[in-house]
Design a protein that fits this description.
The structure holds two protein chains of two kinds. In chain A, the strands form two sheets. Chain A has a five-stranded antiparallel sheet. By secondary structure, chain A is of the alpha+beta class. Helix content of chain A is about 55%, strand content about 10%. Chain A has helices at about 15-20, 25-40, 40-65, 70-100, 100-115, 120-140, 140-145, 150-160, 165-170, 170-180, 190, 195-200, 205-220, 220-225, 230-245, 250-265, and strands at about 275, 300-305, 305-310, 315-320, 330, 340-345, 355-360, 365-370, 375. The N and C termini of chain A lie far apart (about 130 Å). In chain A, helix 15 (about 230-245) packs antiparallel against helix 16. Helices cover about 65% and strands about 0% of the residues of chain B. Chain B has helices at about 1-10, 20-30, 45-55, 55-65, 70-90, 95-110, 130-155, 180-190, 195-205, 210-220, 225-245, 250-260, 270-275, 280-285, and strands at about 115, 120. In chain B, strands 1-2 form a two-stranded antiparallel ribbon. Chain B is elongated. Classes of the chains: A alpha+beta, B mainly alpha. At the A-B interface, helix 1, helix 2 and helix 3 of A face helix 5, helix 7, helix 9, helix 10 and helix 13 of B.
Chain lengths: ~375, ~290
């Protein structure tokens, strides 16, 4: 700046910048300030330069003055956190719903064991003991999710007691009661339970209805001809499940066998009593060390009243009249190799059903017997 | 000390020898009289103090660029290219105009203008008292304001959109009454007695309509201080006007009543009054 007294001359950029940056000495600053007081052009220059400096410093100062920076960084974390919380809430909300069928499924099977009246006192006591153990299984919610999981353990105990199913066959009232119930899945012993609280307890709840429908489809053959003897069929189904559950190693083969039974049952005859296949269990509940005279494992078993028939792996048929304590071989009166034996009955009116057994060989041919010793081709 | 300053400035990186560096410092110091008032002889200590206050790195870079040193220009572009463009855009308020202004300044800085066969660069005028970036911003603002004022004068006269109104017959101003004449004299005398900072404050706030926040950094005070200063200056100015009116023969109530006159009735050129140098103001203050 040459002179502040001459208004035609302005301070140079050096002086104006030094004034704005407080770099001028006091005398020169006073000169520049006096000029700025009367020079709108130089005032405009320094204000524009100051504004540009402020704009240039703004991006640098912005992160420092941005007090909510941490929030903006964490704000994106709220999205996955909220999603996880929602998923957790859904899991918590639907967990009881998914586990609801478990107690129902487990409730049905033990009741079928307990409610089944047995004519044998000691076995009834045994059934009661088993029922006491049942809640331990029913309390397992995981077991309820499995199709065969829940009935497994209680069915083993039922399998150890051939008496209940045999007792059912001897009770006409049970048969009459079961004929009026459309649900073929429920064991007949449950349906025949006269106590109202037990009946209410055994009513299918919505949570288990779907599973029951599946079971209906699987057992439609049984249901189609359930006019007269649903009781025995359901008892057989229960024992088939128990046989399946008692040996996990043979669980895969239980399904096809069940289907075979269904096919054979569509012919108008019904099994009554217990029927076990590939169980390896003795009727008394002991693990079956082969007690047959042949010394081989049992592949099929049928029980009706006091008679028990078993087929070993060789296809030989044995008959026991004292619940498996003593066996006598049955002479082969059929062709081929026997692979399956089942109890069979034909109900007629109010009379007691005529007990019969049915035997099937490997080609699917069947033979029937009333006493287990004499067989006639069907 | 010169050796120390020479090493600290990094002048050797730009090919500036010690002798050349010493010449630059000497010329800068003498041009500013080492920061002292004109006519005052600076001692060696004052000279050293002045040299230490100079931004040597920026000064050396500017002089090296003015001399056309390639390395210094690379360094200059790396540091100041982008900030200078942003500053130009901020000053002009337009991306296009800002880039154009910045490019034009670059061309000038490189020394396209020659005089007597010698390349001249505006960077030669930088003396290191403020930052080089601040100097560049101020130069950009000067270019922009000068360009705006030039082009404003070149506006077509028949464009009513630009605020031009054809002159009509202006009625002859009425002869001011004696009271208004006294008031105008009292105001002019009061303004002449103000200090430079006070006049700058009044001009920036009332004439330029700048905010307190804009004024405060230039005065190196807080905006609240600017507000208090404004309040004090206006109050003192009013009292001084009343005193001047009383000195001219009016009573105090008459002087107070005269202050209520319409400012549009006053024949005052405030711009001229505010352009009074501070030296004159000091002289008037010294006069009883």
């Amino acid at each position: 700046m040459n002179s502040t007294s001459q208004l035609d001359l302005h301070p140079d950029g050096e002086s104006l910048n030094a004034f704005a940056e407080q770099a001028l000495a006091a005398p020169e600053r006073e000169q520049v300030l006096a000029h700025l007081a009367g020079c709108s052009r130089c005032r405009q220059v320094i204000f524009l330069a100051q504004q540009a400096a402020a704009d240039a410093e703004a991006p640098v100062a912005r992160p420092v003055t941005q007090t909510g920076a941490w929030f903006w960084n964490w704000r994106f974390a709220w999205v996955p956190a909220a999603a996880m919380a929602a998923a957790l809430a859904l899991v918590v909300a639907f967990h009881p719903w998914h586990t609801a069928p478990a107690p129902e499924m487990a409730k049905v099977t033990p009741q079928s064991e307990v409610a089944a009246p047995t004519p044998i006192p000691q076995e009834q006591t045994s059934a009661g003991a088993v029922h006491k153990n049942a809640p331990a299984h029913t309390a397992n919610p995981v077991a309820g999710n499995s199709l065969f999981g829940a009935p497994r353990k209680p069915s083993v105990t039922l399998e150890q007691e051939p008496a209940p199913s045999a007792a059912l066959t001897g009770e006409p009232g049970a048969t009459a009661a079961s004929s009026g119930v459309g649900n073929a899945f429920l064991p007949s012993s449950i349906k025949s339970e006269p106590q109202p609280e037990t009946a209410a307890q055994l009513q299918p709840e919505p949570a288990v209805t779907a599973w029951q429908q599946e079971q209906k489809q699987a057992t439609s053959a049984y249901s189609a001809s359930a006019n007269t003897s649903q009781v025995s069929q359901k008892s057989m189904r229960a024992e088939a499940y128990s046989a399946h559950a008692s040996r996990p190693a043979t669980a895969a083969s239980a399904g096809p066998r069940l289907a075979q039974q269904s096919q054979s049952a569509t012919g108008g005859s019904f099994d009554l009593g217990t029927q076990q296949q590939l169980t390896g269990l003795a009727p008394s509940g002991r693990v079956n060390s082969p007690k047959l005279p042949s010394g081989q494992a049992v592949v099929s078993r049928a029980t009706a009243q006091h008679l028990t028939l078993e087929i070993d792996r060789a296809g030989a048929l044995f008959l026991s009249g004292d619940s498996g304590e003593h066996w006598q071989p049955v002479p082969q009166q059929w062709t081929g190799r026997a692979i399956e034996v089942r109890a069979k009955t034909s109900l007629s009116g109010n009379t007691a059903p005529e007990m019969k057994f049915e035997l099937k060989n490997e080609t699917g041919s069947t033979w029937a017997s009333a006493d287990g010793m004499t067989w006639t081709a069907q | 000390m010169l050796d120390e300053l020479w090493r600290e400035s990094g002048a050797a990186c730009y090919g500036l020898e010690r002798e050349r560096f010493s010449e630059i410092l000497e010329s800068v110091g003498r041009a500013q009289n080492f920061g002292l008032a004109p006519g005052t002889k600076a001692s060696r200590q004052q000279q050293a103090s002045y040299f230490r206050s100079v931004r040597l790195a920026d000064l050396v870079l500017a002089r090296a660029c003015a001399n056309g040193h390639p390395g210094s220009w690379e360094h200059f572009l790396a540091i100041y290219r982008q900030p200078l463009t942003r500053a130009a855009i901020a000053i002009t308020g337009s991306e296009t105009l800002g880039r154009e202004l910045a490019d034009q300044l670059y061309a000038e800085l490189y020394g396209l203008m020659t005089r007597d066969g010698v390349r001249r660069s505006p960077l030669d005028s930088y003396k290191g008292r403020g930052s080089l970036m601040g100097w560049l911003r101020t130069t950009l603002a000067q270019r922009h304001v000068d360009h705006h004022r030039r082009t404003r004068r070149e506006l077509p006269l028949d464009d009513p959109a630009d605020g031009y109104e054809p002159q009509t017959a202006v009625p002859a101003p009425e002869t001011p009454s004696s009271a208004l004449l006294l008031l105008s004299r009292a105001i002019e005398a009061a303004l002449r007695q103000l200090a430079a900072e006070e006049r700058f404050l009044l001009a920036s706030y009332y004439l330029d309509e700048r905010t307190l926040l804009e004024i405060a950094p230039l005065l190196h005070v807080h905006e609240a201080t600017v507000s208090r200063k404004l309040h004090r200056v206006t109050g003192d100015l009013r009292k001084q006007i009343v005193r001047n009116l009383q000195a001219q023969g009016l009573s105090k109530p008459a002087a107070q009543e005269a202050l209520g006159a319409d400012p549009r009735d006053l024949n005052l050129n405030l711009k001229k009054i505010l352009q009074i140098t501070s030296l004159n103001a000091f002289q008037e203050k010294a006069t009883p």
